[in-house]
Protein: non-specific serine/threonine protein kinase
Organism: Catenulispora acidiphila
Amino acid sequence: MDGAGNTGEPAAGAGARPVEVPDGFVVGRWRVTGYLGSGSWGSVYLGEAVGDAAVDGDPAEVALKFLPPSVGTPGRRALLAEVVDRERRFSESIEHPALIRTVAVETAESGDAAVDGATVLVMERGVSNVRQLLQNGADLGDGERILAEVCSALAFMHDAGWVHGDVKPGNVLLMADGSARLADFGVTTELDGTHAYAPRIGSSDYLPPEWWSEQVGEQGIALRPTADIWAFGILTHQVLAGGRHPFAGASPHARAMSAQAYAHTGEGLLLDERIAEPWRSLIRDCLAPDHARRGAVTARSLAERIGRAGGSGHGDRSAHSEHSEHGTAQPTGPSTRRRVLIPAVAVAAVVAIVAVAATVLVLKNGSQGKTAASSPHTGTVTGPAAAPATGAAGSPRSAPALTRGELRPDAAVPAEYRDVISRAAHACPTPEVTPAMVAAVLKVESGFDPKFSSPATDSYGIAGWTPRVFTAWAPGPRADYMNPDDAIMAAGQYLCWLDEEFIKEHPPGDLAALTVAAYDTSTKAVSQANGVPPNAVEFTNSVLEYAREYAG
Ligand SMILES: Nc1ncnc2c1ncn2[C@@H]1O[C@H](COP(=O)(O)OP(=O)(O)OP(=O)(O)O)[C@@H](O)[C@H]1O
């Protein structure tokens, strides 16, 4: 299905709310009056100002985003703290008519243990978002103007030295007056030179191809304005083509693979025939396959092109009438709490509907392997790693038995994990990722111990996940690496991705072995070693041996 099927974000409102807040709950000068929806990190509620506590400039209605104080695993808590901090820093720094304004940041304190300590972002309230409109099949007749507004916000952010990092239809809110505003600044980050760094979080349908192979350093992954440009290209295509994504695939993961294939071959960009020039050429430029070529396309230049194409928004909203004619960020008068910076390209008016949503949160292990440090298997392997891997680059023995590796009924694989191991492997279309391979990885990683914990290597649970890496492959926003089902499904997905990468690249050597080696180290390490890197030989051989033993 064109529209709803591939906006890359799950249906709204499904599942438990990360933060349950009762109607009537008061935080700061706001009272909760209803529920709007939940995302990966928190829940958003409708709010109104409490009696005469409202101060000048407060909107009558607000959206209250509750970000929980301390839930989940240590890794998830750390990531959440970072998301909160980024939202706060950005909101307190800049303002623009096409950026959702954060009116206040509060901390919930009421004696309700489930809510107390939550950070609450008090925001202007949107009445709908572009994802909902596309999923509902609404006519986005005014799509060009919405795009103009989003682009003006991006140009402003980039000019002021910020990268949004999560541009997608669900983060383009539509206001009661019809105007569009960009929201959700949990990944937003300030540039330091040409780069900024962010946690490796994103919505896979909107991530540029190079994102998947970036190094993850101490500060996170490098994020450049070109990532926003790519995402804007995808967004533009979807807005102008009834929600259709420009890369083929039935899932966000598959479409991300298509985008990466396109980055290698230059083929596979499927522009919808409904889209007219000059929009087609604008999308093509935004979706230049590599960062370097995309670097020539600035959000400011796009805003100007859109203006020439007739999609430009114009007219100022009264509350934001102090503009720099040339788009140079500049502080205005005695702003109460925030530096107020306004750009040249302003905004206009549109549509509406209401609903809720949740987002795909993806994080991938690029160059560091599944664990940020070395795997915990060394010294714990009791399996028959007899014949060591050989060859200059540690090329392992081939593993013919792996390619049809269902689990033998008498294999020493705990019964309670067989079903999920099988599901995890069969979710992968490649022949190398089999139940036997997945089971063997678990055996070597943890000995099938769901409570496995190795703080020294930052790896935990049955699959030995490093928490921040797990987030990328987690089967859902609330998945837990200590939960065997979640950990095993994520391990299967990660193995699958690695195998698909090698299938595309055709490196020399046995694909199963390379996949296992990359699982322990990284695709980059395997490429550089032109085979199994020396430090992955023991792990790889152990896994292959167990896989043969387990295979029927
Ligand atoms: N300022 C707002 N006004 C109205 N609705 C909002 C506002 N901010 C968020 N929402 C809605 O609340 C829901 C949850 O939003 P939130 O930003 O937490 O998550 P998301 O963007 O859907 O997902 P993720 O956090 O995974 O990116 C969404 O339906 C979103 O449209």
Notes: Confidence is low (pLDDT under 50) at residues 1-14, 312-368, 372-403. DSSP finds 15 helices and 16 strands in the chain.
